[in-house]
Structure formats: C-alpha cells, structure tokens
Amino acid sequence: MNSTPNNRKNSEYIMKRIFFILLSLALFLPISGCGPAPEMAEVGKPAPDFTLVDRTGKTWKLSDLKGQVVFVNFWATWCPPCREEMPSMQRLYSTLPKDKFKMLAILNKDDPGLADSFARQFGLTMPILDDQANLVGPKYGLTGVPETFIIDKEGIMREKFIGPARWDAPGYVQMLMSYINQ
C-alpha cells in the first residue's frame, strides 16, 4: 500500500485523537470518583455520625446519644417488610428503658407525609427521622430497606440486620439488654 500524503495526514490525525482521548481520560478519572471508596459503616467500628430531624421537628445527632444503646432502622412506607416489622419495633420501643435505649426509625427516600399517616394509623411513638434526600443511607452502606443497626453505648456498631425481624422476640430483647447492661 502506498503511503500518500493524505494517508499520512489521516494517520497523524487519528494518532492525535487517540492521544487526546487518553490524556482526557487520565485527567478526568481521578476527579470522577475513581479512587478510594468512602468509609462505610462496619460492625466493630464507630458508627458514622449523622444529624437528622424527626417528624416533630426535633434534631437528632447520633454522637449526642453516647452512653445509650441506639437502634437505627432504615425503612419506607412503600416497603411491605418494613410495614410488617413496625408493630414489633413499637412494642420493643415501649418495653426498653428510655434513658438507656433509643430507637431511631429513619425514613429513607420516602414521603414524610405518608410516614406521618402510617405512624398515626399504627400508633408509632418512636422518633421517625427524615432522610428523604438519602444522606445517611450511603454512610451505612444501605443496600435496601429494612436494614437495622445496633450501636453500643460507646458509639460502636455491634450488629447489622438486613431484612425484617420480629424485634420484640425474646432473642432480640435479650441481645439488646446485654448491650444495655454492659
């Protein structure tokens, strides 16, 4: 094949384009989040701190609850398993000592008005925190709802549960009491 000036110009043009694309990728990738992943919540490590407002307007900051066992549950009104476990969460919340145990039901990417209606319908009295913008879920590595995290008095995440549970069952109450009594 003869190397004509047009072929050489096309080859040079193609090489310059490839170089430009590679250079662009090299400059763009570090900015686009390709790098170390942000720290995720992990059992045995400090729970990520957060500040959210509940449906009554009260601000809750996880780090302010040190000295108490904290039950953090991510849920949504459209989620049947979440709706199913809520009555047992309410019974658990009503049973455990309020000065040593806090339950925070974090509404994840859902309509707060629907949560208010749901809470009234089922007589829920635990704080329902609004995370409609999903600011806290990613910190906890949330894969779906419901997910529950148990945080000890020192702020260390001790348990992670994926899926619904009957939270007032003796085994769960015993587990929580063991953290409360430590």
Explain what this protein looks like in three dimensions.
With 182 residues, this protein is of the alpha/beta class. The protein folds into two domains: 1-35; 51-180, Glutaredoxin (3-Layer(aba) Sandwich), CATH 3.40.30.10. It contains four helices and seven strands. It has helices spanning 5-28, 80-95, 112-122, 170-180, and strands spanning 51-53, 59-61, 69-75, 101-108, 128-131, 147-151, 157-162. The strands form two sheets. The chain has a five-stranded mixed sheet with strand order 5-4-3-6-7. Strands 1-2 form a two-stranded antiparallel sheet. Strand 4 (101-108), helix 3 and strand 5 (128-131) form a beta-alpha-beta unit. It is elongated. The termini are far apart. The relative contact order is 0.18.
Arithmetic mean of pLDDT: 88
Count of helix runs: 4
Strand order of the largest sheet: 5-4-3-6-7
Q: What is the level 1 CATH name of the largest domain?
A: Alpha Beta
The helical percent reads 25-40%
Cα end-to-end separation: 83 Å
Unreliable spans: 29-37
Biggest sheet, in brief?
5 strands, mixed
Question: Which shape, going by the Cα principal axes?
Answer: elongated
> What's the CATH topology name of the largest domain?
Glutaredoxin
> What percentage of amino acids are in beta strands?
15-25%
- Count the strands? 7
At the fourth CATH level, what is the homologous superfamily of the largest domain? Glutaredoxin
